[in-house]
Amino acid sequence: MSAIAVGATRRSWRPDFWTLVAVGAWAILIVLLLIPLGLVLVSSFRDESGVLTLANWQRLFGSTRYFNAFINTLIVGFGGLAGALLLGSVMAFCMARIQIAGGRFVSMLAILALVSPPFIGAYSWIVLFGSGGIVRQTLMSWGIFMPPIYGVWGILIVFAFKFYPYVYLLTSGALANVNRSLEEAAENLGLTPFQRVLQISFPLVLPALSAGGLLALIHAIADFGTPRLLGRGFNVLATEAYAAYSAEIGSNLGMATTLSLALILMSMVFVFIQRFMSRKNVYHSNLINRPEKIRLRGFANVAAHAAVYVIALGGAMPAIIAAIYSVRKTNGPVFQPGFGLDSYRRIIATLGDVVMNSLMFSGASVLLIVVIGTLIGCLVARRNTAQTSLLDATLMVPYVMPGIVVGVAFIAAFNTPPLVMTGTAAIIILSVFIRRLPYAVRSSAAALRQVGPSMEEAAISLGYSPVQAFLRVTIPLILPGIIAGAMLSFVTAVNELSSSLVLYVGGTITMPVKIYIAINDGDYGTAASLSTILLVLSAGAIYLAFRLLGRDERALL
Amino acid sequence: MAYLTVDGAIKRYGATTALNGVSFSVAKGEFFTLLGPSGCGKTTLLRSIAGFSQLTEGRVDLAGHDLLSVPPHKRDIGMVFQDYAIFPHLTVAENVAFGLKARKVATSEIRGRVAEALATVRLAALADRLPAALSGGQQQRIGIARAMVVKPRLLLMDEPLSNLDAKLRLDLRDEIRAIQRTIGIAAIYVTHDQEEALAISDRICVMDHGCVEQIGTPQQIYGQPATRFVASFVGTMNLLAPAAFGLPEVKGVAQWALRPERLRLAEAGAGAGERGAGNGAASIAGTVEHFSYLGREAHLTVQAQGHRLVAQIGAPPPDLAIEAGRQIRLSFDPADLHGFDAKGRRVQAELAA
Question: Is pTM beyond 0.90 here?
Answer without folding.
Answer: no
